[in-house]
Amino acid sequence: MSSHREAPEISMDPVADSTDVYAFVSPDRPDTVTLIANYVPLQDPDGGPNFFAFGDDVLYEIHIANKGTADSDITYQFRFSTEFQNDATFLYNTGAITSLTDATYNRRQVYTVTRVKDGQATVLGSGICPPNNIGPHSTPDYAGLAGQAVYHFPSGETVFAGQRADAFYIDLGAIFDLLDIRPLQLLHTGPLGPGLAYNTLQGVNVHSIAIQVPKTMLTADGSDPVDWRSPSSVIGVYSSASRQASRVYDSKNGGVINSGPWVQVSRLANPLFNELLIPITRKDYWNAKKPKDDHQFLDRVEHPEVAKLLPGLYPNVFNSLAGYGKARADLVAILLTGLPEGVIPGFQNFTGPVQADLVRLNMAIPVNPKPNSAGLLGPPDLQGYPNGRRPLDNVTTVILRAVAGLTIPLVDKSFIPDLAVPVLQDFAPMSNSPLLGTFPYLGLPNSGFGSIPSPTLTG
C-alpha cells in the first residue's frame, strides 16, 4: 500500500512509520496550503485498552523545500509526551470524555510544534491530541471533541494532531497477489478469484499530523504565489520520523532509555515510491537517506520493475509497453524533478535538476471546484496528483497508468500507449469515513465500538 509496511525494519516499528503525505491548496482557504503526514498504520479501531498513539520517543517532521536544492528549507517538528491522570487504573479513560482536559481522559498525549527555518528553531505552540474514537459511551461527541484539538497559532499556522480515518484506498490483497486487478483478472495468467474489488483500508485508522500554512510563509521570498510559471510558486514536501541512535532496555524499571543524536528511520513523499520501486534489500537504506541523495535510485525509476511484470502477467494486453526499451524519462520527471513548463498546457511543478522524491505542489494552480480523483491523468485536473496530493486523489490508479505507459507520450510523442492503459485502475472504492470540507479534511476515525471485521474472501 502507499507506505504502510514498505520496508522490513520499519514494518516492525509502526509508531515511526510514515504512511502517507498530502500537500494541497486548502479548498476553503485558498490563501493557505495544508500539509498532512500520517503515521501508525493499520489501526484496528477497537485496539484497547492500550489504544494507538504517537511515539513519545520519535521526532516527527514535515519538510518543505523551496529553493530548488531538495534541502529542507522549512521544517515543522512535532514532539509528543504522554500524561496519566490516574496511575492506579488500567483504563485509557475512566468515564465519558467531553473535553480534552477532562480528568476522565486518563492517558492523554500533548505535543509541541517547532519551526526550523534558516537554521533557527522557533517553538510555535503546543496542543493536546484528542483521544481515539473509542465509542458512544467513552467519546459521545467525537466530532466536537476533535474540533477542540484544532489550534490556531499566533505565528499563522493551524495545527491538528491525532487519530483520523485512513484516506488512502487500495485493493491491497489483489495488488500484491501478482498485480491481480480483480475486474480485469480474466486477462491475468493466474486463476480466478472473487470478482469485486474492495478497499483494504475500510474501517482502518491512522494518526495524522496536519498543519495549514499561509502560502506566503512557504515561498522562498515571502511572495504570494499567483503566477503558475514562477519557480517560487512550487514547493517540494516530504515527511520523516527519527529515533535517537541508542536504545537501552531497562529491566529494573521497565521501558527503554533513549540517547544520542537523532537518526532518520522513515521518510515519505510520493506514494508507493519505496513500495514499488526500491528493491527489498535497500528499502530500509532508502528510508535512512535524504531526498537530495535520490539520484542513486535513478535506474529504479527509469526501469521500473512493475512495467516489466505487467506484459507477462497480462499476455497481449501491454504489447506496446513490452516493446519500449528506453529509459522512462516521464517517470523521472513525475517523481524526481517535477514537470517543466510546456509538457502539460498551463502547468509546471518543476523544482530544478536535483533528482529527489518529493511531493511537488504548484501553489498558484487554483482550486478545482469539481475535482477529478485521477488528477493530471484524468481528464486533466491540474490541482490533482502528481501536483501535490489531495486526500481524494486515487494515487494507485494514477501510478498504475503512468507506469503502464500513459505518460510516455509526454516526453516521447512516437509512443502509443496500449488500449487498456487509459482505463486501467485499481477499482477499490473510497469507502472509509467521509472526508471533511474543512481542516483537517481527513474523515473522523472509525469507532472502536462500531468496528466491523473485514470480510473474508477466499479463492
Explain what this protein looks like in three dimensions.
The structure is a single chain. With 459 residues, the protein is α+β, with helices and mostly antiparallel strands. It has one domain. The chain contains 9 helices and 12 strands. It has helices at 142-147, 172-175, 273-277, 283-288, 298-302, 305-313, 319-322, 329-337, 395-406, and strands at 18-25, 32-43, 59-65, 74-84, 107-117, 120-128, 151-152, 158-165, 205-214, 234-249, 256-268, 359-362. The strands form 2 sheets. Strands 3, 4, 5, 6, 10, 11 and 12 form a 7-stranded antiparallel sheet that branches. The protein has a 5-stranded antiparallel sheet with strand order 1-2-9-8-7, with no helix packed on it. The longest helix has 12 residues, at 395-406. It is globular and about 70 Å long. The two termini are 21 Å apart. The relative contact order is 0.18. The mean pLDDT is 92.
The count of β-strands is 12
Our Rg estimate from Cα atoms comes to 22 Å
Q: Can you write the helix and strand succession as a string?
A: EEEEEEHEEHEEEHHHHHHEH
Query: What fraction of the residues are assigned to beta strands by DSSP?
Result: 15-25%
Summed up, the domain count is: 1
Pfam families: DUF4331
InterPro entries: DUF4331 (IPR025566)
Protein name: DUF4331 domain-containing protein
